[in-house]
Specification:
The protein is an alpha+beta fold. The chain folds into 3 domains: 116 residues, no CATH class; 213 residues, no CATH class; 42 residues, no CATH class. The strands form 4 sheets. A 5-stranded antiparallel beta sheet has the order 11-4-10-9-12, sandwiched between helices. A hairpin with a 5-residue loop joins strand 6 and strand 7. Helix 1 crosses helix 11, helix 3 runs parallel beside helix 11 and helix 4 packs across helix 9. The structure holds zinc ion (ZN) (3 copies). One zinc ion (ZN) binds next to loops.
């Protein structure tokens, strides 16, 4: 919690706002946006058609708002962009994960009795990288034929961890293609898991699917070496023929055997050797939800430099480490290869080729984020939107708060919400 003294000019701005005639409405808008750091400012009107006469009546006009604008939350999920909206996203994500783990939000509480496993699936190696413990004490020969060794005991916070020993021989193309194809690899793995399960019970997949449903949710995260890794929860609802350990064995077998085609020459896309699958007991499920939700708002790099689509100019002056820069540049350059047109690598250079969503689930898991958001947020125009057709016209007036004082007021709204949310969680 920050205890720094508030600068005098900032305090003066905040007080001026609080003493202004529109203060009540302004603080209401701050609350609606959850204290968003960079809200979108909109101007516009809403008109509603009379059901009988068809006549349009003005029901909302932003001109009546403080500063003549409506504030709308930016809804970013990245803490580096907007801590307030990221906290809201994380809280929604946690509710979504939790519903599929222990029930609630429209999901039956019986889910707690269904076999559940937690899988961490990682990428294969694309070249030796610095690791914890005593790092590469023995010399290794890279693909370029050089001899490399390190021998250092890296501290856990050492920024060199995960970086290649030899950038010349590191397979950057392979890493980018892997990130790009991981979603397809995952899809095939879930299909293979069902086949494995059916095989274990000794019935055809079709029969198995009639009595069992595989529900899953996955969260992706970047490792320091710039490769995606997947955390997934898989839950089996069915006739009880398979227990937790059977499910875990089936997932492991599917992970070991599944591959996806490689659009470049070279071997098929596979998971790395360091994958782990654990059975989750009923007691551990709460904690797991918090752990998974945390990953959804983490940015690839701490400064948030890569949290938006890049253009050529940005690419040239990107201020990230050499390894990350090489990955971004490789992704951009491969984007020109006609064989990879469908991978749309230039569009996804900022995510190092990865083009899926950070958090995904199949419909069997639980409710979705949009539904949660709808239930959670009171829509700002609710007052104006009753039955009947409403025609709204909006224009963009800017982003962010008008003054530092307003931004500071928003920040205190966000802080209050954060505290309340934490208390609510602790009281569960
Ligand atoms: Zn925001
Ligand atoms: Zn090292
Ligand atoms: Zn080398």
């Amino acid at each position: 919690m920050d205890t720094d003294p508030i600068p005098a000019d900032l305090l003066a701005e905040a007080l001026e706002r609080a003493a202004s005639p529109g203060w009540e409405r302004f603080s209401e808008m701050l609350a609606h946006t959850g204290g968003c750091t960079r809200p979108v400012r909109l101007t516009g009107t809403a008109r509603r058609a009379d059901a009988d006469t068809g006549e349009l009546a003005l029901v909302y006009d932003s001109a009546t708002e403080p500063d003549g604008v409506l504030l709308k939350a930016c809804q970013s999920r990245r803490a580096t962009r907007c801590p307030a909206c990221a906290a809201t996203y994380r809280s929604d994500a946690r509710a979504l994960v939790l519903a599929g783990l222990i029930g609630g939000k429209g999901v039956s509480e019986e889910v707690i009795d269904h076999p559940l496993v937690f899988a961490t699936l990682t990428a294969p190696s694309f070249g030796a990288v610095h690791t914890t413990g005593t790092c590469h004490q023995l010399p290794i020969i890279c693909r370029e034929g050089h001899t490399h060794r390190c021998g250092v005991e890296h501290e856990p916070a050492d920024p060199i961890l995960g970086l290649p020993l030899c950038t010349e021989s590191y397979d950057y193309d392979g890493a980018i293609i892997w990130n790009n194809r991981v979603t397809e690899l995952w899809r095939r793995t879930t299909i293979a898991t069902r086949r494995q399960l059916a095989g274990r019970v000794g019935i055809p997949v079709r029969t198995f699917d009639r009595h069992n449903r595989l529900a899953y949710l996955k969260v992706v995260e970047f490792q320091v070496r710039g490769l995606i890794h997947v955390h997934a929860l898989l839950r089996l609802e069915g006739d009880g023929a398979c227990d937790g350990p059977t499910l875990a064995t089936a997932v492991l077998a599917a992970v070991a055997r599944t591959s996806a085609p490689n659009p470049l020459a070279g071997g098929p896309i596979r998971w790395g050797p360091r994958c782990q699958v654990d059975v989750v007991a009923a007691e551990g499920r709460q904690r797991l939800a918090g752990y998974l939700a945390k990953y959804t708002t983490k940015s690839i790099d701490a400064g948030g430099l890569l949290d938006h689509r890049l253009n050529r100019e940005e690419l040239a002056r990107l201020d990230v480490g050499e390894h990350l820069h090489r990955l971004v540049k490789t992704c951009w350059d491969l984007g020109a290869d006609p064989r990879l047109a469908e991978c749309r690598l230039r569009e996804w250079a900022h995510t190092l080729g990865f083009r899926g969503h950070w958090l995904t689930k199949n419909p069997n898991w639980s409710t979705n984020l949009t539904a949660l958001r709808r239930a959670r947020h009171e829509y700002q125009l609710q007052k104006a939107e009753t039955d009947g057709v409403t025609i709204a016209e909006w224009s963009y007036a800017g982003t962010g708060h008008r003054t530092e004082g307003d931004a500071w007021l928003a920040q205190s709204v966000a802080r209050d919400r954060w505290l309340n949310r934490r208390i609510a969680w602790e009281e569960r």
